Amino acid sequence: MEIFPSSKAYKLVAGDLRQGRLSHAYLLLCPDLPSLGGFLRSLASLILVEGAAAAEAERIARLVGEDRYPDCRFFPAKGEKCGVAEVKAMLDDCYIRPVENARKVFILGAVHEMLPAAQNKLLKVLEEPPAGVVFLLGSASEYAVLSTVRSRAKRLDLQSFPEREIEVYLREKYPSRKDAKELAALSGGLPGRAEELAAGNVSGESEQLALLVLNLSPAAIPAAARRYADREEAARALQILRLIYRDLLMLRLGREDLLLCGGDKKVLGKAARRYSERALVHALGRIGQCERDLRANAAVPMSIEALLYGILEET
Asked: Higher pLDDT residue, 159 or 5?
């Protein structure tokens, strides 16, 4: 099962194709960094297989997914950054005719990591692209993309998928896992994060964070901020924290049947007695604000500290 074709972003490009008004450039804004490259490749396949017979479409899609299709180029190469030199090489290539397709697609998979000089190098070709060339830009953050670049590409927003779709996706991809519902709730609607959780020790991290919630104190906060100083780890921890505080609220409301976290119920029970319903609702709001701050490139340790101190003040 592929989950991306159900998104509005994918359907928008598919609609543009059907109506013969394909844009020369699309900017996919998606916080799901592990999935971003795959989503862009899916869009490239959608564009390049138009009009092809079934067997040929399957071949093109397979080669695009393997980065081996001659008329689809992915920048930067794995493990590299996309600097001015790489953009220049791409621009030289885009004026060369396609090898076998009517179109040529160029994927820039991490515009949020490109320096302004490299992004500026794109402006002319985005404004006056060669015929038959489509640029697919991907970024985990809107704020990291120059406004001049954003204005020259059609914007595609993909924030998250419904939890139920994530759960079905996980059940198909990881049939041996029995906690697909819990992982979907932890994922925040991001397939890439759901897969990372499925490959990692979710229960162990949930238990550690549940103990932090139970024993939250001024002395514990600096260590927690250092522990989650990495942006991706912090995002994952915030998803688990949201689920924990949500479960504590369910316990306070007498709805143990709605628990999702799957942690130690004794720890959760003790933590629920520590917080009032008002404090738990406040904590959930603070977590949401912290996530928004991190998406806007706020400093991670300071944001985690501010979150935990803010929760503690209401406890």
From this structure: 5
Angle between helices 202-214 and 180-187 (to 10 degrees): 60
Where are any strands of DSSP class E within the chain? Answer: 25-29, 72-75, 104-108, 133-139, 154-157
Secondary structure of the chain: what % helix, strand, coil (to 5)? 60, 10, 35
pLDDT at 81 over 80: no
**DSSP codes, 150-161:** HTTSEEEE----
* CA dist., res. 219 & res. 70, Å (int): 57
pLDDT tens for residues 31-68?
A: 888 899 999 999 999 999 999 999 999 999 999 999 99
Whether the Cβ atoms of residue 180 and residue 171 lie closer than 8 Å to each other: yes
pLDDT score at 13: 97
Residues 6 or more apart from 66 whose CB is under 8 A from it? Answer: none
Q: Which CATH class, in words, describes the domain spanning 201-314? A: mainly alpha
- Strand partners of residue 72: 105
Give which of 23, 103, 37 is closest to 70, Cα–Cα.
103
Residues whose CB is less than 8 angstroms from the CB of residue 127 and which lie 6 or more positions away in sequence, other chains included: 152
Q: List the beta bridge partners of residue 133.
A: 104
Task: Please check whether residue 49 is in contact with residue 61, taking contact to mean a CB–CB distance below 8 angstroms.
Answer: yes
Domain boundaries, the chain: 4-157, 201-314
User: Edge-to-edge, what's the strand order for the sheet holding 133-139?
Assistant: 72-75, 104-108, 133-139, 25-29, 154-157
**Per CATH, which fold does 4-157 belong to?**
Rossmann fold (3.40.50)
Picking from 13-17, 76-80, 108-112, 255-259, which range would have the lowest pLDDT averaged per residue? 76-80
pTM to 2 decimals? 0.71
Residues in the chain: 315
For residue 286, how far is the Cα from the chain centroid? 21
